[in-house]
Amino acid sequence: MGQRKRTALEKNLSPQGASRAPAEISRVPNKKHNICMVSDFFFPNMGGVESHIYQLSQCLIENGHKVVIVTHAYGKRKGVRYLTNGLKVYYLPLQVMYNQTTATTCFHSLPLMRCVFVRERITIVHAHSSFSAMAHDALFHAKTMGLNTVFTDHSLFGFADLSSVLTNKLLTISLCDTNHIVCVSYTSKENTVLRAALNPEIVSVIPNAVDTTDFTPDPSQRQDDRITVVVVSRLVYRKGIDLLGGIIPELCLKHPDLHFLIGGEGPKRLVLEEVREKYQLHDRVRLLGALEHKNVRGVLVQGHIFLNTSLTEAFCMAIVEGASCGLQVVSTRVGGIPEVLPEDLITLCEPTVRSLCAGLEMVIARQRAGSVPSPASIHASVRNLYTWTNVTERTEKVYDRVSGEEVLPLDRRLRRLRAHCGPVAGSIFAFVAVLDFLFLLLLQWLVPDRIMDVALDATGPHAVWRQQPTSTDISKKQPTKTDISE
């Protein structure tokens, strides 16, 4: 099943026809865009969304686009910061409510975001993550300002519990007039289309990517007298840490040479500490705590098997990183995971302790018999499966498509909200859209766009940072005392 979906992915989303719905995308050659990435989740916070935004932005900059990122302040990290290659990040002073997500009233962020969009001459607003309130705010304000919008959904949601019902309704409102939506797997696309009642033709599948040059195998780091199972994950419920707590004592009892190396932090760490204490496994279960991304490879190359116990996952980058380091991968068969790796590189199990134990024991037996592929051959197999260059090409096709599309005027937007989101929620948010538009008119009257300073471009075709000084400029500069002293 996973191989068939992956084949369809490569066929439909190849560089010749990537990132599009069935309708053709007319791409304007060498067209450059001013893009604003918006999400609550960005560095110094660590995670898959943060890494995706950063890597995609860097590749877009390399291709000549202008990219800025908007997120909320993290502690003392406020204001404007510049990252590698002139990537500008706005850390806005917005109040964090829960789990690094900002509180939203849909209005308090408009003055700040309008300032960024106008000063940076943004043409496309690209929001990330259904969990991010700032992303939904940015989509709402961008449509009010007449900007084209793109949204990337990185997660899967249910349909039954109260939180999912509320989140799905918010997503329906945010995406009903968004120009294009990107999902990271076909399972994620089906989930998003159903949750937000979307037309599948405006939803594209663009998988995540991994820089495999950062994840190379090193068998010399393994200990031959033991078999090491590596787990690198946030220690939270949806990552299946309760399953891991059931697996460890059962397999350690059967296999005296089995060790577990666990990297990550979260509220479920207590479960693993209790298991380790109860069964006296301190010498066989190591809890490394939170890991910086640069240290993940150093942990992976120590293992023989990579274990993923997630209960829900749209696209699991961790299993690609593990395979890239030459590990045998054992994972739960949930969400988009069956689409990620070829069947000969992954052992899929049901999300139960019994099934995962059976899968691990099968791989352990193959490991002892020496019938597993070498780490180098596994790395070679996954090296070119998911590259940021390919992801960037597909994303550029989406940008080229939406840049030629119409942004709905206010009257049609109000009709779309009421027709698409229901008579109650649609009417409420149509009223909010009118208030947002009136607030924008007030801000434009108080501080007209024409008197707002235009920011210097650090990236893009007119990037000041990349302009080389001419010989005339160099000759005009006179050495100062500071220059001489340095």
Explained architecture:
Helix 6 (about 185-195) links the parallel strand 9 (about 180-185) and strand 10. The longest helix has 24 residues, at about 425-445. This protein is α/β, with parallel strands linked by helices and about 475 residues long. The protein is elongated and about 75 Å long. It has helices spanning about 1-10, 50-60, 110-120, 135-145, 160-175, 185-195, 240-255, 270-280, 295-300, 315-325, 355-370, 375-380, 390-405, 410-420, 425-445, 470-475, 480-485; strands at about 35-40, 65-70, 80, 90, 95-100, 100, 125-130, 150-155, 180-185, 205, 225-230, 260-265, 285, 305-310, 330, 345-350. The protein has 17 helices and 16 strands. The strands form three sheets. It has an eight-stranded mixed β-sheet, with helices on both faces.
As laid out across the biggest beta sheet, the strand order is: 3-4-2-1-7-8-9-10
Shape: elongated
* Strand element count: 16
Largest sheet: 8 strands, mixed
Helix content class: 40-55%
Please indicate the percent range of residues in DSSP E strands (runs of 2 or more): 5-15%
Terminal CA distance reads: 63 Å
Class derived from helix and strand content: alpha/beta
Mean pLDDT: 86
Separate helix tally: 17
Radius of gyration: 24 Å
Topology:
Blueprint: H1 2-12, E1 34-38, H2 48-62, E2 66-72, E3 79-82, E4 88-92, E5 96-98, E6 101-102, H3 110-119, E7 124-128, H4 133-144, E8 148-153, H5 162-175, E9 180-183, H6 186-196, E10 203-205, E11 227-232, H7 241-254, E12 258-263, H8 269-278, E13 285-287, H9 293-300, E14 305-308, H10 317-324, E15 328-332, E16 346-349, H11 353-369, H12 375-382, H13 388-403, H14 410-421, H15 423-446, H16 471-476, H17 481-485
Parallel strand pairs: 1-2, 1-7, 2-4, 7-8, 8-9, 9-10, 11-12, 11-14, 12-13, 14-15, 15-16
Antiparallel strand pairs: 3-4, 5-6
Helix pairs in contact: 2-13, 3-4, 7-8, 7-11, 14-15
